Structures are given as C-alpha cells and as structure tokens.
Amino acid sequence: MLDQHEIVALRLIARLHNDDIRQLCRDCQDLDDALQRLGRHPMDLPQRAAEQIERCTQLGVSVLAWHDPRYPSRLLGIASPPAVLFVRGSLPEPAHPMLAIVGTRSCTIHYGKPVTEVLVESWTQRGAVIISGLAHGIDTVAHESTVRMRGTTVAVIASGIDRITPIVAQRMADRIVEGGGCIVSEHPCGVAALPPAFPARNRIISGMSDAVVVVESKRRGGALITAEFARQQQRPLYAVPGPITSTRSEGCNALIADGVARMLTCADDLRELPERSMQRQVFESIDGLDTGTPRHLDEIAMHWNCSASETMRRLLDLELEGRITRLPGNTFLARAT
Asked: Which tens digits make up the pLDDT trace of 132-161?
C-alpha cells in the first residue's frame, strides 16, 4: 500500500479517477511503480505532493485516504468514494445520526428559511449532525441554525478548503469549525470550484448522510441532483411540500408526486432515524461508557443538549423498553444487555 505522500501525489494527477487511484495503490509497491504504469505524468509530482501536505498542515487540514480509520465509513459504500478527503475541523463520531438538508440557493424568506430553522432546531436537539453544501440559501440557513443551536454541522464543498468563496461563506466555515464541526472536500488546497465539481460534491453530501431532506427546490437544480444520488445510494429521501404557486417548491412537490421522496411536514416525520441513535447516546451517557455509573437527569440533559422535560420524555421511553432503571433522586442506570 502506498503511503499518504504517494497517494496525495496520485490525487494531483487530474486525469486519474478515484477508482484508478485505489487500483494503483493495490497493485503497486510505491509511487515510482505507479508512475511507470501510468506513463506520462508531471515530472514535479513528488515535490507538489510535499507542498500540498505542507499547505494542509499550515491550515490545520487533515488528509484522509479511504483506508484511514478516520475516513467516514458511510462513504465507503457509495459508488466511487473519494480516494482522499481533506478535512478542516473535527469529523463527527459515526454513532451520531447524519442528516443532509439541501435546497435552492434562492430560498424564500417566508417559507423555506423558517421551515429549515424549525427542522434543524428539532433535529439538533436530538443530537443529529446536519450536513449541507455551504451554498447560499437553504444550505447556509441549515448551517447557521445548527451553529446557533450549538449543534454539529458538516459543510461539503466543491473547492479546496483554502479557496472558499464568497467571504460570507468563509466566515460561515470558520464558525462551523469553531463550533466543533468540519469542512470536507475531495479537492486539494489551491483548487478553485469549477462547475463539474458541484454535482460530484453532492454525492458526498448524500453519501455521508443517513437521510436526505430537500426543503425547497426548483424544477431543476443542485438539490435534485443530491436527491438523485440519495436514491442511487439507497438513502431515505424526504421532501418538504410547498405552495403550488411557488416555483421554488416545484422540485419538492414533483419528488413527492412521483413517489421518489417521502413527504415531510414536521420534524417528527423523520423521528425514527434520530431517535434510535439518540437513544443509544442516552444509553451510553447513562452507563458512563461501560462504567455502570448512575447518571442524574441534569447531567444527561447536558450531554444530550436538550431540555430537562425532553430528556425525561425520552428516558421514560427507554424505561418502558426495559433498557434503563430509574433510581431515587432522578438518577438513571443502564441495564445490562
């Protein structure tokens, strides 16, 4: 297997696809062997790879090849997963539910924006990680709402991490990282966003997710490309219906009418996904990660990032399922499984 430096070098060869890189890594002993098989290639490739890794180090960007244990496991099951990911910030733990929220860049102030905010608020309180594309409109509303709720959000971009535009998106990216989320790209630093990169970016958004939600979309647009990737990747797809008089809801209404997406009218329509994962997190917070220590309601609520009343409701569900025992003084203990 080639090392990180050699894999990055192959990633810098424009004509190589992700599957080509993985095949070369499997078949070749080192970079020289791989380059001999390719024939023509940039002569300064090793130097450029070293410069790329140094640039990433300066920016605090992690370079993750597909076989790295930190690489998002959900992506490994999609067609042509990125051979290399560039990540600024902290990738969420795989146990968290991952929800993609996408939509038009020209979202409506009176409908798309408040709908996205309400959905994100509810799902973030349940511990879901929100994934989107850092584009203007629904994407930005989803990121902003998550950061405001002190939740975790992931932005998947179509450029190098040091080439985010416009300025407002750069500032949003900084807030995402400061809030414990991350920026993800399959492009090396220094690469500007070109039109073909946006549809390819969308396969990563859906691929990292457990479900995809389209809030507002015109009849044609990037959100529908993400929806198609979700269908191909067998991710649950939801669409928020909108007014029949609004062109910005035509895409969502068509997804529902054609039976491609399930209709979503409130956060609880998607309840089964985050609830399952959140119950597991509550369970872990109770047993202290295998310590068997009783946990107080307030401690669990803080760990879960939601109100005491909401925490109690979910704990009661777990108690009815026989997964926890309620002790005096609003403390709870996980039962052995």
From this structure: 999 999 999 999 999 999 999 999 999 999
DSSP 237-284: EEE----TT-GGGHHHHHHHHTTSSEE--SGGGGTHHHHHHHHHHHHH
> What tokens appear for 123 in the block?
């799902």
CATH of 98-269, one of 3.40.50.450, 3.30.930.10, 3.50.50.60, 3.30.70.2190: 3.40.50.450
**CA separation for the pair 121, 115 (Å, rounded):** 10
Of 223, 225, 228, 219, the C-alpha closest to 254 is 219
Nearest CA to 216 out of 252, 188, 190, 246 is that of 252
Token pair listed for 187? 């492009």
**Could you tell me the two tokens for 227?**
């929806």
- Residue 41 corresponds to which tokens in the numbers above? 């290639």
Task: Give the CB-side neighbour count of residue 290, counting CA atoms within 13 A.
Answer: 0
Long-range contacts of 260-263 (CB under 8 A, 24+ apart): 260/227, 260/231, 261/214, 261/227, 261/237, 262/236, 262/237, 262/238, 263/238, 263/239
What fold, for 272-334?
Arc Repressor Mutant, subunit A (1.10.10)
Query: What is the pTM for the complete model shown?
Result: 0.81
What string of DSSP letters covers 9-36? HHHT-TT--HHHHHHHHHH-SSHHHHHH
Query: Which region among 40-44, 159-163, 201-205, 228-232 has the lowest average model confidence (pLDDT)?
Result: 40-44
What pLDDT, in 10s, does the model give residues 1-30? Answer: 789 999 999 999 988 999 999 999 989 999
